[in-house]
Structures are given as structure tokens and as C-alpha cells.
Amino acid sequence: MNHGHHRGVSIQVRNLQKSYHGQAILKGLTFEVQRGEIFAIMGPSGSGKTVLLKHLIGLETPDAGEILVEGESVQAPGVMDRYRMAMVFQSGALLSSLSVGENVGLYLSEHRLKPPAEIARIVSAALELVGLNGAEDKMPAELSGGMRKRVSIARALVIEPQLLFYDEPTSELDPLMAVTVGEEILRLNRRLQVTSIIVTHDRDLALGIAHRIALIHQGEIVSVSSPDEIRANPHPLLRRFLTADFRFDTETTHL
Question: How far apart are CA 159 and CA 233, in angstroms?
Fold first, then answer.
């Protein structure tokens, strides 16, 4: 893997709006993610963070507003093709019939992007980056939840992404394993300088590794702050975020 290619990209979100069936889900979101930053997006269920993620990865088109990568609109022809983005899915999304090595190299082999020997070398390097040296021949069923998550991170790394999205990377993991995966995300961010955007419910993860956290509530951004700023901020919603469990907070009352 050529670590020189892993240069993170910046993202600008400007006045992003989206409604479904007349109901506004994203109400004019504006924020920026710096190159190489770990940026967490948090909020209760139904706050709009999943819809925002779908816009960021290009699965949804906004009703108004725009998303820029390195200053270029993602709607402009060819812009998305110029940047390498990868996604680590919530479930890990590994194919159970394939070995770890086959899972990690799947994109490269399916698209015939490299000869088999080269793919094997890239897969081995990606697994080494996530601390799973020599795990190529294991099957997903033999791995713990945390190891499966690390395999799915390795699979995202083979394309040498400039932007890495994590969807709930610690869900379904016990607290100790969640910390390990958090440390992994931090280590990779430092080593590869890739821009990392994490959509998460996990307060400890966000406060522990993010450079900045965007807190979304009912389709609006309440704050974009560093963990220290959040801890020091008297805003009632941020206090609730720090003390209450946002996870089951689907019927949030208006503040």
C-alpha cells in the first residue's frame, strides 16, 4: 500500500435540505470537515443523521443546498470519480462464504483492478494495518464481532480511501471491544491521514476519538464542537447528551 496516496479530503456541507412526503428531515445543515479530521455525527434516532450520511456518500440528492469535496460540488459530473471514498457498514457486511482474505480483496478482484499476486499483497497489508496479520484464510464465522469489524475496516482500506465513512462502528460490540475498535479508527486516521466521518450513537467513542462532533437534533445542527467544548458547554441539549442515554430517545420533546 502506498501510504502517500492516503491524503484526506475536505468536505463542505452548505444549507443541506431534504424532505420526504412533505416532512422536512434535514433543515438547512451547514458544516465543514477538515482534511484528515475525525468528525463524528451524533443525534437521537430520527434526528436525520442517517439521511445526512446517505447524502454524503452520494446515495441521496438534496432538495436544496450542496455538498462540496475539496471545493467542488459532488453533483458536478466526474467529481465523485476523482476521490476515493469507502464505507465501513454497521453490520460489517462480510460475506460468510468467503474467507477473510477474499472478503478484503473482493472489490479489487471483482473489478479486476490488480493481478492476483498484487491483490494478495494489498490484502495482507490492509489486514496488517488493522492488526490481523495472517488472518487471510480464516472464515468470518470463526471471528469475534470486533475482529469482523476490523476485517470490514481492512476491506475499506484496500482502495486507499481519502475519505472513510463509519456507520455505527461500535454497535453490537461489548464496551471493551468498542474501545478497541475506537482505538483502531484513531490509529488509522493518524497513520493514513484519511478524513474519517463517523455516524454513531456511542458517546464514549465520539468524545474519546473525534476531533469535532456535530450534534443533530430534529434535522438541525445544535452544535459542532470539540469534545472539550461539549463538556464545558451549558446548553441544555448538550448537557442531556452528556448525561442521558440518547439511544432510546426517539420521541424527543422540543426544547
Answer: 39
b (16+ CB within 10 A) / e for 197-212: bbbbbbbebbbbbbeb
- Helix-, strand-, coil-residue percentages of the chain, each rounded to 5: 40, 25, 40
Ordered structural domains, the chain, with CATH: 3-84+161-248 (3.40.50.300), 95-159 (no CATH)
The values of phi and psi at residue 88, to 5°, are -105, 110
Which pLDDT tens digit goes with each residue over 37-51? 999 999 887 888 889
pLDDT tops 90 at residue 95: no
pLDDT digits (tens, 9 = 90+) for 178-189: 898 899 899 989
Instruction: Compute the radius of gyration of the chain from its Cα atoms.
Output: 18
- Give the type of residue at 124: S
C-alpha span between 22 and 19 (Å, rounded)? 6
Residue with cell 472489490: 107
How would you classify the pairing of strands 23-33 and 11-20?
Answer: antiparallel
Question: CA separation (Å) from 168 to 50, 111, 163, 181, 189?
Answer: 10, 27, 16, 11, 17
What's the confidence (pLDDT) of residue 92? Answer: 65
pTM of the model: 0.87
Task: Give the Cα-Cα-Cα angle 95, 6, 127 (nearest 5 degrees).
Answer: 35
Taking each helix axis from N to C end, the angle separating 145-157 and 116-129, rounded to the nearest 10 degrees, works out to 130
Which pLDDT score is estimated for 246? 53
